[in-house]
Amino acid sequence: SQKIEQNSEALNIQEGKTATLTCNYTNYSPAYLQWYRQDPGRGPVFLLLIRENEKEKRKERLKVTFDTTLKQSLFHITASQPADSATYLCAPSGNTPLVFGKGTRLSVIA
Amino acid sequence: GAGVSQSPSNKVTEKGKDVELRCDPISGHTALYWYRQSLGQGLEFLIYFQGNSAPDKSGLPSDRFSAERTGGSVSTLTIQRTQQEDSAVYLCASSLAPGQGRGNQPQHFGDGTRLSIL
Q1: Residue A77 · residue A105 · CB < 8 Å
Q2: Closest Cα of chain A to B33: distance in Å?
Q3: Which residues of A58-78 are buried (b: 16+ CB within 10 A; e: fewer)?
Q4: What is the rounded (10 degree) CA torsion for B46, B50, B52, B54?
Q5: What CA–CA distance (Å, rounded) separates B65 from B47?
Q6: Closest partner residue to B43 among A51, A95, A100, by Cβ?
Q7: What is the rounded distance in angstroms from the CA atom of residue B115 to the CA atom of residue B7?
Q8: Chain B within 8 Å of A102 (Cβ-Cβ)?
Q9: Spatial contact of A97 and A35, defined as CB atoms under 8 Å apart
Q10: Closest residue of chain A to B33, computed from CA coordinates
Q11: Distance between CA atoms of B95 and B25, rounded to whole angstroms?
Q12: Nearest chain A residue (CA) to B98
């Protein structure tokens, strides 16, 4: 069955540093991979979508990579701020329902 | 414009009762999804509607769960004879029509209904 692993349940970093979150998947070959942010008590908010033929995608301080050989996506937040503290979810998908990882809870410490 | 709206935001009910959860998607979004999120768990897919196509019900955990979408807009998720393990946050999302694959459109989520079964 499809399996998604996000590198750790929690990640703490200092303000101003780059946060790197990892998403690994097994047993399928998604054509797309999406990243979402979720704050406590709120629904997920879409951040970025990357296609299998794209190696990298950027949006402001966010960067996502998609390595279909390693079956891995990396999500980077540069110049992190306390407001970036949230849970980040990855969702690799093809022609099937989105399957979400459990998320990584990021805390950016001032 | 308005986002996805879910009601009620919280629902507490006794075991064995039926509950209805409502979702108002973003206008113009033909795709609608229901998910369940239990404490400390990822989002679990329940059901997917796209236009006039037959819904994908493959994620519904039991026959106590059902959903409908009227007029291609509002959707209702119904849980009959609720059990304590049904306690979770139920999230609805909508999107523009996916192309070849379901994952090629961003999904817009509501803030969910927090369901507690006593």
Answers
A1: no
A2: 9
A3: eeeebbbbbebeebbbbbbbe
A4: -40
A5: 10
A6: A100
A7: 11
A8: yes
A9: no
A10: A97
A11: 8
A12: A95
Mind listing the pLDDT tens digit of every residue in chain A (110 residues)? 778 888 778 899 999 999 999 999 988 888 899 999 999 999 999 999 999 999 899 999 999 999 999 999 999 999 999 999 999 999 998 767 788 889 999 999 99
A19-26 vs A72-77, strand pairing mode: antiparallel
Q: How many residues does chain B have?
A: 118
Can you give the pLDDT at residue A6? 87
CA atoms within 13 A on the CB side of B58: 5
The encoded tokens of residue B21 equal 């959860």
CB contact under 8 A, A51 and B104: yes
Cβ neighbours of B37 (radius 10 Å)? 21
Q: What distance in Å separates residue B104's CA from the closest CA in chain A?
A: 6
